[in-house]
Amino acid sequence: MADQLLQQAQDLFEGQIDFEGQKLTELFSTIILAITGFLAFGLGFAQGNIWMTLWIGLGGTALAFLVVVPPYPIYNENPEKWLRANSGMSGSGIEVDGKKIN
């Protein structure tokens, strides 16, 4: 029972995402930060208020943090199929300096 709870907690905090999920999070963060950056600059310039610019930028950064950092299931839809540890290089037929490596 405790092992199952520990495994669930480890899976939750480990935050595994696949390579496609990494691309997606990078895209999301770039889009969110670019839009809020332009919005913050435009509104702050129009109002002549540097504090508005800073608060909008901070809000966009917080939004990007909430969208990107947690390991949502959408970020792990294409997990890699890893080889077993014992499948290694045996019988691969690699030749180095005329000698076969087993």
Give me the secondary-structure topology.
Layout: H1 2-14, H2 19-47, H3 50-68, E1 94-96, E2 99-101
Antiparallel strand pairs: 1-2
Task: Write up this protein.
The protein has 102 residues and is mostly helical. It is built from 3 helices and 2 strands, in the order αααββ. It has a two-stranded antiparallel ribbon. A hairpin with a 2-residue loop joins strand 1 and strand 2. Helix 2 runs antiparallel to helix 3. The longest helix has 29 residues.
Strand order of the largest sheet: 1-2
Order of helices and strands: HHHEE
Distance from first to last alpha carbon: 43 Å
Could you report the average pLDDT, rounded to the nearest whole number? 87
Low-confidence stretches: none
Count helical runs.
Answer: 3
Number of beta-strand segments: 2
Helix content: 55-70%
Report the β-strand fraction as a percent range.
5-15%
Q: Any idea what the shape is?
A: elongated
Rg (CA only): 23 Å
How would you classify the helix and strand content by structural class? mainly alpha
Main β-sheet, in a few words?
Answer: 2 strands, antiparallel
Compact overview of the structure:
The protein is mostly helical. Helix content is 60%, strand content 6%.
What structural keywords apply?
mainly alpha, 102 residues, two-stranded antiparallel ribbon, 6% strand, elongated, 3 helices
